[in-house]
Amino acid sequence: MLPVTAEDHLNGPVAVLANSTAGRGRYSALLPRLLDGLAAAGRPIRLLTATGPAEAEAACRAAVADGAGALVAIGGDGTVHRALQAVAGTDVPFGPIPAGTGNDFALDTGFPADPLAASEVIASALRDGRSRAVDLARMVGFDGTVRWYGAVLAAGFDAIVNERANRMRWPRGPRRYDLAILVELARLRPRRYTLRLDGVPHELDAVLVAVGNCPTYGGGMRICPDADPTDGLLDVVVAGRVNRRTLIRVKPRIYQGTHVSHPLVRSFRARTVELTAEGITTYADGERSLGLPVTISAVPCALRLLR
User: 291: which strand partners?
Assistant: First the structure.
């Protein structure tokens, strides 16, 4: 097999990863219209098939390796996260169509919230050969595993809740997450973290740690309100020795990003973040990711967006 060249990518088909279960399936009926909208750019469309997250990621990697001219992800942040693993650090442009429960990366990078409007933006960019560069965060685990994310890495209470919810078999649906919150609130305790920010160490006790390339996670919570995916930096927000009552009182303020003014919340900014704590599995873009310790680096212009 001949190697894939830059010219192959320029002329290749538009690969589309569509998650029919995203957003609890409420956008699945739109898929034909979304594909027609993308096809209006005059490029061949190749719909990728996958039955789960691992297959979706593998399908995206294979499409890029086979010379796809662009990759489009229809779904939420989880679908975007899988697609990013294939296009990060490449010249293959990417377009997210927000159709999930959480669409933080798409919205934070300027795409319309309406899926049809987002498909029109992407089709226009494809027609005009237009793309805009944004940063991504690159994670390296203790065993050398490399993962990328676009929005936010959770490495504290929210990650612990997600891990609890994923282990539970009952109840089904959103109530499982609500129950996981109650369980972990009852168990809430500060953990000892070591942060090394551009080589400068910080030892601290915290209940919540987030590392953001973009401002929001969890469907619009502005956990890292000043994060900018074009500044070459990561924003780190840490809630220190917060008790249950304070956490419950402060957490709603995250939607406006005003939690960072609380005296127990600290914010940092760095190009490289080394994060260590015991017993924490991180969640990146809402997806289960690497266990600590990890090293996270802001990679400028790592992604070309179809905007």
Answer: 281
